[in-house]
Design brief:
about 0% strand; transport; Phosphate transporter; mainly alpha; Phos_transporter; transmembrane
Length: about 750
């Protein structure tokens, strides 16, 4: 037997381990986000509960491997060689696709990924077989492919998106109407009932979805099946009594138990049912190889047309393999940084407060928000004002200190009511779909339920709606992109392997390893990126003198970075260095973004000021205005310089470069003195710096007059003249903005006042 197939089997086994890692990194959000977002229980407890659910679900899983063996294609129509090529292509593309989405921080469906990888590879292999046949045509493709399954999955995608969002929104709206945001007081009266219903729903989900298909379920299916309604009613009564007793004895909310049990249930279902997405193909490849080896040993030859009909038989998963898979899944859950990145996406999109929005608005998100707002206004005109007032009262959030976007990251993204609804609704919908034998992705359901509950909870306000809707559209688009990308990628890879398996298989495996390592290093670098020392920080002081001292570091950093940007612009022009100027553009954009972020924080700064310190707001606003003026001048100088060099216009004359260098040297001294004054908090030096304002301004003005004289007598390049005048004009604006900032500090600073918020070092 050719060693290439043994090599493929070993490679597929190794890829299976990697697939589990990237798969868990993606699917961890399904069961972690509600607990993490609510911060109802500690992160350590969340991980322990989820780990137990994952390990138990994996060990007791029957594998449900039929989708990889015969759910998408008809194995009897393919030979051993073709089956191995298909499985090799599927594992390569599945890993790369999931890792790509994990790196982006977007949740996708491992079920859809594996199914469409199988479909794409099988379709291309079928077309290759049909094209080589004299009797078959494209119409015979249906003999090779289970098209019904693919259509069911696509239908399931569309259905799950709308149903999960709608049901989640409705249940959350009713729950909030009852409990309001002051749910601690309401829990005394309704908490036990709500806890009973939630826990009953989740435990029913655990038995129906989490354990169905496992060997354990066979021992209890006689009791469960046919008695679902009685079990539900009994569970509600038992869990309600438990909830009442728990709250009375511990004086804590039963929602903590709901969130813990719900996390366990979803983790159990994930590993028990989605394990097929990771090891289904490798197991099918192993059974194919084993069958072929047996046939080879028996006959002594390798039949080229040996049918793989053996894959149509149901083969249980090996316990040792399930145990190892469960262990790998648990380790991945604890150590995968990409899992945390994917989790952050959903938590940010469903956060109750302001957060750093990851997605930019687009035309579609704006249109949806405008349409929804118009619809809301229409219903507001119909519903009586008194009814609206009562509803609004239920959704009124408790007054609290206004927190910045950075500060809000340390608080729960949403409360325990929403977390409980997320887990309860997701569990019920998945259980119902399982009982009706409907194909449904746990990722789609859990994500869309979370989006529906956040929408109903008014987390998508006018301030954040376009960003949140854009994020949801990006994720949904990614789901369909997964299906399309998996289909074509797997088809392309299987074509290459079929063309020359001994050459293409090692090349594709090497390429896969390179891409995985590159993505890992890139993500690690991004995750571990530490803010530079000269980055800007928000001011949190409540007095003028406190703001003066807190802002001094920002001023010093802007001056330092501005000095470097200005010098690089002049040097780039002198050397005609397009690369330097392009890099300089990125630096000025980064600086402008940070200054804009400080201005975005003005609302929170003013809201948290003491009544006696309102003057600090005027000072802070003026300072930020001058900083923005400085960055705008630097931005214009940099972009104008890059455009001139990038368009290959004439170089500036030697005399012009010399004059710009002279100005740059004078500015360098001016900026360094300013930076030192602010770094050392020696604000008395500002007066000396301001005294040299006319000297520097006259230097720039003299250069403008020289250029006017040159233009009238010897200048022949309109582009050079325009560039030079604009540079000098914008340099004057930069100088004016900096001097205005210094004057603001000089007038506001009082050395006799000790800043209230600074501690002695």
């Amino acid at each position: 037997m050719d060693n290439i197939y043994l090599f493929m089997l070993i490679a597929i086994t190794v890829l299976a381990v990697v697939d589990i890692v990237v798969g868990v990194s993606n699917d961890a959000i399904n069961f972690l986000n509600s607990a993490i977002g609510s911060k109802a229980i500690s992160m350590r407890t969340i991980m322990i509960v989820a780990s137990l659910g994952i390990f138990i679900g994996a060990v007791f899983s029957s594998g449900m491997m039929e989708v990889a063996r015969k759910g998408i294609f008809v194995p009897a129509m393919f030979s051993f060689e073709e089956i191995m090529y298909i499985f090799m292509a599927v594992m390569i593309t599945d890993i790369l696709l999931l890792d790509f989405f994990n790196t982006l921080g977007l949740p996708t469906s491992t079920t859809v990924s594996i199914v469409f990888n199988l479909l794409g590879a099988a379709v291309v292999m079928s077309l290759i077989k049909i094209s080589a046949s004299d009797t078959q045509t494209f119409a015979d493709l249906g003999d090779y492919i289970n098209t019904k399954k693919a259509i069911e999955i696509i239908t399931g995608i569309v259905m799950s998106v709308f149903i999960a969002f709608t049901v989640g929104a409705l249940v959350q709206w009713v729950s909030r109407l009852i409990f309001t945001f002051q749910y601690e007081t309401k829990s005394k009266y309704f908490g036990a009932i709500f806890g009973g219903i939630s826990l009953a729903s989740i435990t029913y989900f655990i038995f129906l979805k989490g354990l169905k298909g496992t060997p354990f379920y066979k021992s209890i299916n006689g009791v469960v099946e046919g008695n679902e309604l009685y079990i539900l009613i009994g569970s509600v009564i038992v869990w309600t009594l438990f909830s009442y007793a728990f709250q009375k004895i511990t004086k804590k909310s039963v929602l903590i138990i709901v969130i813990a049990v719900g996390t366990f249930g979803l983790a159990l279902a994930f590993s028990g049912n989605d394990l097929v997405n990771f090891i289904g193909v490798p197991m099918a490849a192993y059974h194919s190889f084993d069958a072929m080896q047996t046939a080879f040993t028996t006959s002594g030859t390798l039949p080229a047309d040996f049918s793989m009909a053996i894959l149509e038989k149901k083969v249980p998963a090996e316990p040792l393999l399930l145990f190892i898979s469960g262990a790998i899944m648990v380790l991945t859950l604890w150590f995968s940084k990409k899992a945390k990145t994917v989790a952050e996406t959903e938590i940010n999109l469903s956060s109750q407060g302001d957060t750093h929005e990851k997605f930019e608005p687009n035309m579609l998100s704006r249109g949806i928000v405008k349409g929804t707002s118009a619809l809301s206004d229409y219903f507001s005109a119909i519903v009586p004002k008194s009814t609206q007032a009562k509803i609004d009262k239920s959704f009124q959030k408790p007054s609290a200190k206004a927190l910045t976007k950075t500060q809000s990251k340390d608080l729960p993204a949403f409360d325990m009511i929403r977390a409980s609804v997320n887990l309860m609704v997701a569990g019920v919908l998945i259980a119902i779909a399982t009982s009706m034998k409907l194909p449904l992705s746990t990722t789609y359901v859990t994500f869309m339920v979370a989006m529906g509950t956040s929408f109903a909870d008014r987390a998508w306000g006018r301030e954040s709606a376009v960003y949140r809707v854009a994020g949801v559209l990006n994720v949904i688009g990614g789901w369909f992109g997964t299906a399309i990308g998996a289909f074509f990628a797997a088809g392309t890879v299987v074509f290459l392997i079929k063309w020359n398996p001994k050459v293409m298989t090692p090349i594709l495996l090497l390429l896969t390893a390179i891409l995985l390592v590159r993505n890992y290093l890139s993500h690690k670098e991004t995750s571990n990126k530490i803010a530079p020392e000269d980055s800007l920080t928000d001011s949190e002081s409540s007095s003028v003198q406190g703001v003066i001292h807190e802002s001094a570091k920002n001023i010093a950093n802007v001056v330092k970075r501005g000095n470097k940007i200005y010098t690089n612009a002049i040097n780039g022009l002198a050397k005609q260095d397009s690369a330097l100027l392009k890099k300089n553009k990125k630096q000025v954009i980064k600086l402008s973004t940070e200054v804009d972020a400080l201005r975005d924080n003005i609302f929170y700064f003013i809201k948290n000021l003491d009544e006696s310190s309102l003057n600090a707001s005027n000072f802070y606003i003026n300072i930020l205005g001058y900083l923005q003026d400085m960055t705008q001048s630097l931005d214009y100088i940099t972009k104008m310089s890059h455009k001139h060099v990038n368009n290959n216009h004439k170089k500036l004359k030697f005399s012009q470069i010399k004059e710009l260098k002279e100005i740059d040297e004078r500015f360098d001294l001016f900026f360094n003195n300013t930076q030192n004054a602010f770094n050392s908090r020696s604000f008395e030096q500002i007066g000396d710096i301001l005294g040299r304002k006319n000297e520097i301004m006259e230097l720039v003005t003299s250069k403008i007059l020289k250029q006017v004289e040159r233009t009238r007598t010897e200048e022949s390049s309109p582009k050079n003249t325009t560039l030079y005048f604009n540079l000098l004009s914008e340099t004057k604006d930069l100088l004016s903005a900096t001097m205005n900032l210094l004057e603001e500090y000089h007038n506001a600073h009082d050395a006799s006042v000790t800043p209230a918020t600074l501690e002695e070092e």
